[in-house]
Amino acid sequence: MKSLIIGVGNVYRNDDGVGILIVRKLKNRVSDYSHVKEQSGEGTSLMDAWSGYGRVCIVDAVSSGSPAGIIHRMDVSSESIPANFFSCSTHSFGVAEAIELARTLGQLPSQLQLYGIEGGDFQPGEFLSAEVERVVESVVDEIVQYVSSS
Fold first, then answer.
1. Cβ–Cβ contacts within 10 Å for residue 17, how many?
2. What does the chain look like in DSSP terms, one character per residue?
3. CATH number at residue 121
4. pLDDT in tens, 14-59
5. Residue 76's domain spans which residues?
6. Half-sphere exposure (CA, 13 Å, Cβ side) for 17?
7. How far apart are CA 100 and CA 145, in angstroms?
8. What is the phi/psi pair of residue 99, to 5°?
9. Are the beta carbons of 59 and 36 closer than 8 angstroms?
10. CB-CB contact of 15 with 121 (8 Å)
11. Tally of CB atoms within 10 A around 94
12. Crossing angle of helices 18-26/130-148, nearest 10°?
């Protein structure tokens, strides 16, 4: 079965678009063994998107207080997401809430990897900050490695 990569974000809020931009770069590189989807981050849509997949990777901007450009990697199939991770989200039921609800309901994919790229600029606009832009290719390469290993 193919894995799923979900890019979450809003390309019109600067660094918040990094998840979407990363999955767009991944689309042609992983098409033989992974599906790629773009999502806004609304929780129930995320749960619907990963339904039926055993291996899922989510990539999104986070705002935890770390410096912009820091990459947070978590196996959220076995660990909870820190409460302050998605403080920039405009959704009251977003990525973290969807993961924890799915965990409670027994609907979490057996493998769920989260790549959170620390954002610095979530203002309206269509550009990544230099710190976030610098890590995009390394995250793309890591995700290719993750989904291609079985």
1. 24
2. --EEEEEE--TTBGGGGHHHHHHHHHTTTSTTTEEEEEE---HHHHHHHHTT-SEEEEEEEEBSSSPTTPEEEEETTTSPPPTTTBTT-S-SS-HHHHHHHHHHHT-S-SEEEEEEEEPS--SSBS---HHHHHHHHHHHHHHHHHHH--
3. 3.40.50.1450
4. 999 999 999 999 998 998 889 999 998 888 899 999 999 999 999 9
5. 3-148
6. 16
7. 26
8. -65, -45
9. no
10. yes
11. 20
12. 40
d(CA 96, CA 92): 10
The proportion of the chain whose per-residue pLDDT surpasses 70, expressed as a percent, equals 92
Flag whether the pTM goes above 0.85.
yes
Q: What residues contact residue 52 under an 8 Å CB cut-off, 6+ apart?
A: none
How far apart (Å, rounded) are the C-alpha atoms in residues 1 and 35?
A: 10
Average pLDDT, stretch 107-118? 93
Q: Which two tokens stand for residue 108?
A: 């979490």
Evaluate whether 9 touches 25 at the Cβ level (below 8 Å): no
Q: Which two tokens stand for residue 77?
A: 């199939």
What does the block give as tokens for 38?
């773009």
Domain total for the chain? 1
Q: Which residue has the tokens 């909870």?
A: 80
Which pLDDT band, with edges at 50, 70 and 90, does 1 fall under?
low
